[in-house]
Amino acid sequence: MKVWYLIIALFLISINLRPAITSVAPLLDTIQQDLGMSGTTAGLLTTLPVLCMGIFAPLATKISGRVGLERGLFYSLLLITIATALRGFFGTVPLLIVTAFLAGVGIGVAGPLVSGFIKHYFPTKPGVVGVYTVSMAIGAGSATGLSAPIYQAAGNWEPALAIWALLGVAAMAVWIRFPGKKKADLPEKSALPWTSGRAWLILVFFGLMSSIFYSVTAWGAPIIQSMGYNSVIAGSMLTAFVLIQIPSSFIIPSLVAKYGYVFPTLIGCTVIELGGIFLLISGGHPLIAMLLIGLGAGGLFPLALMLPIIETNTYQEASAWAAMSQGGGYVISALGPLGVGAVFDFTGSYTVALYGMAVIIVTMGGIQIVLWITARQTTLKR
């Protein structure tokens, strides 16, 4: 297929990998009050899909081995679309939990396959991961920024969550043109690298990094509201957190792909993110804090996705490493939003949770230093 068609396909599937999660965040207080949920239960709406993303990511290699890499991505997209659309029918806690589960399964299977897709079709251009992450940021930002206005226009939150299924319909119109079956795209022999120490370090790093992202995504607006800002301003600041990731998630991996120094760049992004958290703790302006956290997260995530690609030699291996890092990593990260909700229920304040995030970020930086010291001396790993 033409390169432009592959880029469009990558863009369209990637833009669908976050709205099912981020569309809930700006409406979390509304949904919680409407359905009478506790903070812990509300946190489950973002925790459950992330947990499923981890649990079901290792199945990606088996599924694609049966139906092919491209078809595996199409079926994942179909599941995400159905789960998102179902939210428009019944506004109940059980339905929200079921759709969060189904969306998480679809996203979990799709994630490693997208890494394999990039390695397969763009083997010498790991910087293409920037298209992947920018597309996810656009999807996440759109859902975060527009869900509240859609809710206000519609009068209830169900259509504000379900409308994002339209992105899935548009993507399926493109992905259905890929071959129905393509044997051995990701063969069974591409085992997950359970015996590799570096793979385990990448897994833990991915988990800690994602736990911060999803905690801020789920609870950023309530944290800002607790500082005295109204829901509209808090939502706009959360949108800024997401939108700043669009340029950073494209520019940073592109520069790393061109000039190298992946691990110094990772550490720099970690320091920026940590600065944003401490600004929130100290009572600084939340917009600046959210921009710093978003800038750091925007660099960390694409570089974390790039690591399995640059650490491996084939697209089968890349998908296996990605399946392991995302599988275990998302299980770890799922504890983030749930933990913030539980800490708030226990203490009545977000301060303790913010200190916990700071500790997680420092630990993440330590892992990056170990990966840097033990890295093979190649251009991207200097």
Automatic annotation (TrEMBL):
Gene3D superfamilies (UniProt xref): MFS general substrate transporter like domains (1.20.1250.20)
TM region(s), chain numbering: 38-60, 72-90, 96-118, 130-154, 160-178, 199-221, 227-247, 259-281, 287-307, 328-346, 352-373
Keywords: Membrane, Transmembrane, Transmembrane helix, Transport
Localization terms from the record: Cell membrane
Domain called Major facilitator superfamily (MFS) profile: residue spans: 2-377
Source taxon at top rank: Bacteria
Membrane-topology annotation of the record: Multi-pass membrane protein
Main location: membrane
InterPro entries in the record: MFS, MFS_Cyanate_Porter, MFS_dom, MFS_trans_sf
Protein name: MFS transporter
Organism in which the protein naturally occurs: Jeotgalibacillus terrae
